[in-house]
């Protein structure tokens, strides 16, 4: 993950500053080169589409709500796949304005996900809602269930929610502007919001810094390797290291069900069964 930030997190101010210019490093890993970020996005998109495909999602003609639309990487993906309707939200005015100019056929709104009644703004009955690298920025625990309730309210029954997050196993990790919640916390919150978890699969193993380890020794070793070897090589040879890391992570992801970093989770909104009274 990017470096630790101060504990006082003003989301609007933070993202206004971060999106003072619009490029994918601002929505991705801003401390890593653009060419390397392209490889990171390639791996995330691959894992996202794989999870949705396994859940039976078909993009052609679908309606999508993109939460944290950012620089439009996934908007561009959905457009290329032939979606019918898309709405995007982001907390940054600069990001939403840039997206609206770039994709006039879709609607984009400045909105904080942790504010209630999102569906009054964007509508309901979406086939898919995506929250890729978004929910860990909801650092206020009181806002987290509101965010999940918003996502549920905008989906049609049986609709899919894709979340890219940490889902750590031991304890939550707080980086100030990022809070990585435990898998058990996520499970309980998703059930309360009306979701079933369909799948969860690791995205990264070597391409980004790991943080979810069973032992302190493994965490220390991984941290040293990242800072002393991997990160300096990425800065010097971003495309080569991106290609190498992508290949390694793709191979490991095909055989391992758990990883030390971010994962893709696909959930389905429960279908409420209405009891039929006898006539």
- What is the domain tally? 1
Report the sheet with the most strands, covering strand number, pairing sense and barrel closure. Answer: 7 strands, mixed
Alpha-carbon distance between the two ends: 59 Å
CATH architecture, please? 3-Layer(aba) Sandwich
CATH class: Alpha Beta
Characteristic terms for this protein:
279 residues, alpha/beta, Rossmann fold, seven-stranded mixed β-sheet, two-stranded antiparallel ribbon, 10 helices, 9 strands, 41% helix, globular
List the helices and strands and how they pair.
Elements: H1 11-18, H2 24-27, H3 34-54, E1 63-67, H4 73-80, E2 85-90, H5 93-102, E3 107-110, H6 119-122, E4 126-132, H7 143-154, E5 155-165, E6 173-174, E7 179-180, H8 183-193, E8 195-202, H9 216-236, H10 238-253, E9 263-269
Parallel strand pairs: 1-2, 1-4, 2-3, 4-5
Antiparallel strand pairs: 5-9, 6-7, 8-9
Helix pairs in contact: 3-10, 7-8, 9-10
Quick rundown:
Helices cover 41% and strands 19% of the residues. It is built from 10 helices and 9 strands.
Description:
This protein is of the alpha/beta class and 279 residues long. The protein has one domain (11-269): 3-Layer(aba) Sandwich (Rossmann fold). Helix content is 41%, strand content 19%. The chain has ten helices and nine strands. The chain has helices at residues 11-18, 24-27, 34-54, 73-80, 93-102, 119-122, 143-154, 183-193, 216-236, 238-253; strands at residues 63-67, 85-90, 107-110, 126-132, 155-165, 173-174, 179-180, 195-202, 263-269. It has a seven-stranded mixed sheet, with helices on both faces. A two-stranded antiparallel sheet has the order 6-7. Helix 7 crosses helix 8 (183-193) and helix 9 runs antiparallel to helix 10 (238-253). It is globular and about 50 Å long.
């Amino acid at each position: 993950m990017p470096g630790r930030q101060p504990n006082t997190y003003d989301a609007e101010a933070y993202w206004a500053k971060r999106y003072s210019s619009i490029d994918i490093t601002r929505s991705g890993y801003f401390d890593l080169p653009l060419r390397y970020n392209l490889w990171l996005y390639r791996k995330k998109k691959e894992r996202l589409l794989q999870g949705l495909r396994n859940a039976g999602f078909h993009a052609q003609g679908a309606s999508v709500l993109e939460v944290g639309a950012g620089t439009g990487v996934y908007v561009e993906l959905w457009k290329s796949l032939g979606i019918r309707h898309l709405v995007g939200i982001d907390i940054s005015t600069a990001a939403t304005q840039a997206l609206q100019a770039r994709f006039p056929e879709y609607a984009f709104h400045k909105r904080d996900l942790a504010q209630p009644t999102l569906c009054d703004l964007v509508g309901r009955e979406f086939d898919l809602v995506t929250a890729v690298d978004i929910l860990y920025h909801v650092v206020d625990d009181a806002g987290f269930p509101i965010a999940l309730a918003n996502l549920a309210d905008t989906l049609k029954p049986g609709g899919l929610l894709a979340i890219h997050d940490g889902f750590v196993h031991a304890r939550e990790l707080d980086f100030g502007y990022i809070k990585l919640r435990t898998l058990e916390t996520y499970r309980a919150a998703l059930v309360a919001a009306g979701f079933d978890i369909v799948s969860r699969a690791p995205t990264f193993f070597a391409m980004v810094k790991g943080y979810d380890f069973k032992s302190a020794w493994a965490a220390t070793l991984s941290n040293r390797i990242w800072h002393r070897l991997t990160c300096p090589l990425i800065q010097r040879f971003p495309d080569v290291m991106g290609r190498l890391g992508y290949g390694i992570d793709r191979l490991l992801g095909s055989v391992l069900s758990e990883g030390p970093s971010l994962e893709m989770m696909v959930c389905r909104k429960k279908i409420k069964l209405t009891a039929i009274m006898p006539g």
